[in-house]
Amino acid sequence: MNNQKTETSKTPFVYPNMKLAFVLLVTCFTAWGVAANMTDPLVKVFSQIFTMSNLESALVQFAYYGAYFCLALPAAFINVRFSYKTGVLTGLGLATLGALAFYPASVSMTYGAFLAALFILAAGLSILETSANPFVMAMGPKLTATRRLNLAQAFNPVGTNIGVLLAATLILPNLNPATAEQRAAMAPQALHAIQQLELDAVMMPYVGMAFFLIIIWIMIALVKLPKSEKVAEKVDPADKQHYGFIATLGRLIKLPNYRWGVVAQFFNVAGQTCTWTFTIQYVQEAMGGSATHASDYLQYSLMIFLVSRFVMTWLIGIFRPTLLLGIMALLGTALCVYAAINPSISGVWAIVMISVSLSLMFPTIYGVALNGLGKDAKFGSAGLVMAILGGAIMPVVQGGVIDSYGAAVSYIVPGICFLVVASYGFSSMKRVKD
């Protein structure tokens, strides 16, 4: 059981006006949920528009999560040099530029231009996430930090559902049903006209999201935080050597709970991205039908993910987070194995129910790994966000497995990823008092 002192629950924030900052940060968690899950169906979309293999189209996720890896460390330097608020604003600004870049990409009609726009968008979200997660944890008592982060992360699935809904209503229905063979037989002018309409459909929701990000940026910029506010303080000049990058990295590497937390986060994000990215392909292989119909099951997955996030936040107040993490990860592996063996309607629902397991993983690994790091959490957070690289690498691996063996067998890939997460959850029970 999770034994937390009663008084900590009465003081969830360090300062009273942190409540407004927390609410605004929740909108950021929602925003990157929209972006991430509007991107998942693009693997299927681009494979159809540009007539590519699953392996080639999976470069969408490589560009998206690769940007997370590249920008997480610069984000940490921003947070150390300035504040978490500065990091959040920088991330929102860069993400806005990336979303707006979808317009010139649709004009150029090249796959590379869309990948570049996605990279810029994800680069901004990387800085945003590297700043927002530890920001939320630093807003109140340490004993409730993991639960507070789970609460904030619970609003991320709101964004994921909106993202999938936007893709299902604005992008997928506008795809021309012509097959790769039919497209190859078309006259260049006819194919160009079809592709232009399809890419315009991809562009519109991203440009719309850019204006939403601008509104969030303005609201956060106007919020005044206390000058003595701990979560925004700069490193004292006398502490620069102690809290410098090399010194901090040396301390972090020596901490097994943090070190293996980065590994677990790599495989958690890998498993999550693999599960959702290829849900549409799995459904079509198991049941047939259109991509639009298959996307309904991805929407079901994310609705379950949303509800489960709030349920898990409640359960963490009762049971140890590390124990729940291990159990949920094992459940995820079992569901993946079942789906791989049974490519049918029951296998489809097994894929959908993996979202129950996923709902707990990211914020819990994050909170457990950063537990007790103090100022080192600014660079520690960067390492955990860099671990999102798993979402860039493993979908490419799974895409290759699909091309060779089919979508059903490919779900062994996320199943293996969840085993690594389970190992971290159970082993952390001995190291962390949660």
TrEMBL record:
Record carries keyword ATP-binding: no
Keywords: Cell membrane, Membrane, Transmembrane, Transmembrane helix
Gene3D superfamilies: MFS general substrate transporter like domains
Signal sequence coordinates: none
UniProt membrane topology term: Multi-pass membrane protein
Membrane-traversing stretches: 60-80, 87-105, 111-128, 149-172, 206-225, 260-278, 298-316, 323-341, 347-370, 382-402, 408-426
Highest rank taxon of the organism: Bacteria
Protein name in the entry: L-fucose:H+ symporter permease
